[in-house]
Amino acid sequence: MIIAVDGPTASGKGTIAKALALYFGLPHLDTGLLYRAVGRQVQMNGGNADDPHHALAACDFADSLLEEDILRSEEVGGLASRVSVHPAVRRALYERQRAFATQAGGAVLDGRDIGTVIAPEAPVKLFVTASVQERARRRWLEMTGRGIDVVLAAIERDIAARDARDMNRADAPLVAAADALVIDTTHFGRDAAIEAAIEAVQHKLSAH
Ligand code: DC
Q1: So what's the pLDDT on residue 189?
Q2: Domain architecture of the chain: domains with CATH
């Protein structure tokens, strides 16, 4: 069984995808990490994330990069969003994601285009979202909790810019698949959101 979990940054999709993987005993792939690795590799190459040739060359990153903490930074998240607009980058990362999705026994993948492009045949598709203000608040809490000095308004601005880039790109834009169940976590705590997602999957399974 393939479970596709899509949604914007800081919506809680990663937390939900991990919890579903654990609950249903499936392997999980955070596809955003692949784009983050490309963004980070461009930076290490001294290249420009907006240049499709520089971005494509960076798709050749070493797998060990995926383990590095720096991939989780806001800066690398912004670079990931910039490299992800290039169709050649999306093509280069496609096979790896597709192979993960179609492995025997199933998988959970989270990202932006899992239900629309990577695994459109997935029987379970969730689109996890929340208001920009709430997502900015969560990111601010997380960052200040790690001792990083950031201003809430700046985070809100960055998230809105990233949403706009992810939703307006021509190739595989961030959009809920027509058959996705939308989970708005704006007013949900973590556990309630996970519970709703597990219920949604079970409901789909019993209907199959
Ligand atoms: O989920 P994330 O914040 O780690 O993703 C970082 C960026 O990578 C995001 O802004 C857009 C891009 N991305 C994508 O285009 N397609 C995916 N399936 C996952 C991420």
Answers
A1: 87
A2: 2-202 (3.40.50.300)
